[in-house]
Each structure stands twice: as structure tokens, then as C-alpha cells.
Amino acid sequence: MLGDFITRCLILLLGYAYPGFECYKTIERNRVDFEELRFWCQYWVIVALFTVVEKFADVFIGWLPLYGELKLALFIYLWYPKTKGTGFVYDNVLRPYASRHESDIDKKFQEWRTRAWDLAIFYWQNCTELGQNATFQVLDFLTAQSTKFSSNNKKTKGSITLYPPSAPPLPEIRATLFENNEDNFKGKNKKWH
User: Fold this and answer.
1) Fewest beta carbons within 10 Å, which of 82, 135, 154, 185?
2) Are 154 and 162 in contact (CB under 8 A)?
3) How far apart are CA 158 and CA 160, in angstroms?
4) Can you give the pTM of this predicted structure?
């Protein structure tokens, strides 16, 4: 049994680097051979699918003895010139399944893309709001600290000491900012001229 490190290095070299270089050479030829280009495209589709499935199934099959070596053998089988297993696996396994379920797969990808976009927007909005709140809290803290050291900002009313107010809540700030922008655009606010 090969060491785990050596197996991983061989998988990277013989499963990704060598096929990637062969694919590059195919693309960069003056006259691209369509069949060879199709072969390498099929190879990368199979490898991508295998990588995705492996990420989920690794818990169940990753512990099997000689798993890394079998994976290496599969990659070599797929591109080796005498076996060219890519054509067999693509034509007999992947293409029939994908052609039967193409519309379902397409719908799922559209749904996942929409959900991912909605989730990204949701987190972006929450992160910016949290960032604004954190910034105002820091400014409040700094303002409170500066008023402790300067007596000029203190106003007393009887025996009660009043400090400058803290930052207003976020919705009020937004409303104020948007009102000021609208006034500036309409020409109503001319105090800066």
C-alpha cells in the first residue's frame, strides 16, 4: 500500500496536472481535433462529477482500504490511450442518466442559484446593518469617553449632568440622510451656497 501522501501527489499529477496539460496542448494546436477535444471535455465532466459525489460520499467510502489507489487507477483508466475509459463511462453511464433527467437537474440548479443569491443578499444586508450599528456604538463609546475628560460639553440642569445624546437609531439616520439628499437634489437646501 502506498503512503497517503504519495497517493495524493500521484492523484494530483496523474488525475489533474497531466490531463490538464494534455487538454491545453489539444486546445493550442493549429488545427484542433474535434474528437480529442470532445474526449478531454468528457474527461473533465466525469472528474468534476466524481469530485462532487466524492465530497458527500467520502464519509462512507473514504475509509476503505486502497481507496486512494483505486481513485488513482480510475483516473488513469479514464485517460490512458489504450483504455480511454472516458468514452465508455460517459456514453454508458453519464449521458443516459443526464439526458433522462436534464430538465430536473436544470430546474434544481436554477432553484439553488436563486436561493444562493437571496441568501447572499440577506447576509450582505445584515452584515452592513451590523457594521453600521457597531460603528455607531464605537462612536457612542468614544463620545462618552471624550465627555468624561472635557467639562466643556457638560450641561448641568440643577443637580443633573446631561451628556450629549447617543447616536440615533438606524432607521432615523437613514430617513434623515435620504431627506437631506432629496432636499439637495431639489434645490431646497441652499445653506451651502
Assistant:
1) 82
2) yes
3) 6
4) 0.56
Residue-wise pLDDT tens digits, 97-110 = 988 988 898 899 89
CA angle 56, 62, 65 (to 5 degrees): 160
For residue 116, how many other CB atoms are within 10 A of its CB? Answer: 10
Q: Give the integer Cα–Cα distance in Å for 172 and 169.
A: 6
For 50, 118, 152, 170, the CA distances from 128, given in Å and listed in that order, are 38, 15, 34, 11
Summarised one tens digit per residue, pLDDT across range 135-183 is 888 888 888 877 776 655 455 555 555 555 555 555 665 566 556 555 5
Smallest Cα–Cα separation from 8: which of 80, 69, 79, 75?
Answer: 69
Model pLDDT, residue 64 = 83
